[in-house]
Amino acid sequence: MTIIKKPDFIQSIADALQFISYYHPIDYIHALHTAYQHEESTAAKDAMAQILINSRMCAEGHRPICQDTGAVVVFLQIGMDVQWKTDSSVEAMVNVAVQQAYTHPDNVLRASMVEDPAGTRKNTGDNTPAIIHTEIVPGDKVDIVVMAKGGGSENKARFAVLNPSDNLVDWVVETVPQLGAGWCPPGILGIGIGGTAEKAMLLAKQSLMDPVDIQALRTRGAKTTIEKLRLEIFDKVNALGIGAQGLGGLTTVLDIKIRDFPTHAASLPVAMIPNCAATRHVHFTLDGSGPARLEPPRLEDWPEITWDAASGSRGVNLDNITREDIAQWKPGDTLLLTGKLLTGRDAVHKRIADLMARGEALPEGLDFTNRFIYYVGPVDPVRDEVVGPAGPTTATRMDKFTDMMLEKTGLLGMIGKAERGSQAIDSIKKFSSCYLVATGGAAYLIAQAIKSSRIVAFEEMGMEAVYEFEVVDMPVTVAVDSQGESIHQSGPSLWRVTVPE
C-alpha cells in the first residue's frame, strides 16, 4: 500500500507553484514561436516577441512570468489504495503549500485572493485558499495537476445553455470578440460541452491542461467530432483578426481544447474559459517515494528572439510632456517612456471616488496633475530588485472612473492592457487625453525599465497602493489617441478575414 506523507505532499505542491511561476510549458512556447514566425502584423509580432523574451528571462531569473501570479487551482486524483500519513485534511495541506510557495523569500509571489468577496474584500495575505477538485479513482498513487489562473483571463469565462439544435461554433465565434483583449491573447481557449452548468465549466478548465497539439492534429487529420470542432473553431477564431493583445493580427489562439460529457436530451451546456499568455500548469504523480521531482526545461528550448525596443519608437519624457505632444500620437505608434509615473488599480480609483464624493482632499503628496497613471499591481521585490514583475492589468475595469480622473484630478494619460469601452474613449476624446498599452505577459521584462519605486499613498492597500515609478525606456503602444481613435477597433478590422464554409 502506498503511503503519502504530509511533508512530501506539501513540498510537492509548493515546489510546483514556484516552478510554474517562472517556467512556461514548453509546448506553449513552441506554439507561440511558430505563431511569431508567421505573424505579419508588426504590432502583434512585437507583442509576441516581448512575451517570448520575457518568458526566457523568467526561466533564467526564476521570477514570475506575470505580476498576477494567479488563483491556485489544484486537481487531485487520489487512488483508493493510498494511505495518508498526516494529521491534516487534504485541503489544509494544499493551503499550507500555497502559503509556503507564495511567501518564498527567493521568489515572492503576489497575493491576490480576497475574502468577504461581496463586502470588505480583504486580501488574505498569502493567496489562500486554493480551489481544489478531488476525484477518488482506482490505484495506489496520487495524480496532481497544479494551475495558477490569472484574473484577467478568468474574468472572461463564459457559459451558455444552447438549444440542442443551435450551432456551437457560431456561439464561440460570436462570443470571443465580446471578451476583448483582457485575457492577453494569444492564448488557448478551453471549451466544455455537456453535463450540467457546473460540469461544463469544470470540463473547460480541465481542458486547458491538455497538450498544445493543434498543428499535429491538422497534419494527421481530424477523426472525431471533437477534433473537427477544434480545427473549425481554431480557424474561425483566428480569422477574426483580434491578434496578440487585441492589436490586430493573424493569431489570436494557439490551440482550442475541448472536453465533453453526456448531457440531458433537452440541453446543450457550453462553457468557454481562455488561458492567457501566462499559461501556467504542471502535472506530476506521487507514489510514496518522496516529494515530486519536477524537471526544469532546458534554456535551449526557448527560441533566440532579437527585439529592438528602440526600432521605430519615439522617446517620450514624462516629466515635461504636454497635451500638445499627446495630440501628435496616433494608434499603433510605439513609445519609450522615460520619467515618473503613478500607479493605481480598481481599489485606488474607488478610494479616490469615495474621497471626492465626501468632499475630501486626496492624501498629501498625491497629485495627478499632468501625470500618467499605470494600471498595475506589482509583485514585491526580492534581493536587489527595485520592484518585482510589473505588467499591466485590464484597463476596462477602470472605465467607469475615467471621466472623474480626467476631469477632477488633472490626470493626463493612462497605461494598461486591453481595450477601453465607449465610455472611457468618449472621456479620452473630451479631455484630449490618451491611453497606452504595455504588453500583458511581459511583466518581468517591463520591470527592467523601472529604476526606482516608492509608495505615495494608501500604503495599507499593499500591491493596490499608489506607487511612483521612475522608468527609463518603458515600451508602450498608443491604443487610444486624443481624438478617440482606438487600435483595438481598427486593428482587428484590418486583419479580419472570412473563412470559407
Short description:
The protein has 501 residues and is of the alpha/beta class. It contains 15 helices and 19 strands.
Instruction: Determine the mean pLDDT.
Output: 95
Strand content is 15-25%
Q: How many H/I helical runs?
A: 15
> Total number of β-strand segments?
19
Based on the coordinates given, report the CATH architecture of the largest domain: Alpha-Beta Barrel
> How many domains, in number, for the residues?
3
The radius of gyration computed from the alpha-carbon positions, rounded to a whole number of angstroms, is 23 Å
CATH class of the largest domain: Alpha Beta
Helix content: 25-40%
**CATH homologous superfamily caption of the largest domain:** Fe-S hydro-lyase, tartrate dehydratase beta-type, catalytic domain
Main beta-sheet strand count, sense and barrel state: 5 strands, mixed, barrel
**CATH topology assignment of the largest domain:** fumarase
Can you tell me the residue ranges where pLDDT is under 50 for at least 5 consecutive residues? Answer: none
Overall outline: globular
How would you write the strand order of the largest sheet? 14-15-16-17-19
* Structural class designation: alpha/beta
Distance between the termini: 56 Å
How is this fold's topology laid out?
Layout: E1 2-5, H1 6-22, H2 26-38, H3 42-61, E2 71-79, E3 82-85, H4 90-102, E4 114-115, E5 122-123, E6 131-137, E7 142-149, H5 151-154, E8 158-162, H6 168-175, E9 187-195, H7 197-207, H8 214-220, H9 225-238, E10 253-263, E11 268-275, E12 281-286, E13 313-317, H10 323-326, E14 334-343, H11 346-357, E15 372-374, H12 399-408, E16 413-416, H13 422-430, E17 435-437, H14 443-447, E18 450-457, E19 466-480, H15 487-495
Parallel strand pairs: 1-3, 2-6, 9-10, 13-14, 14-15, 15-16, 16-17
Antiparallel strand pairs: 2-7, 4-5, 7-12, 8-11, 9-11, 14-19, 17-19, 18-19
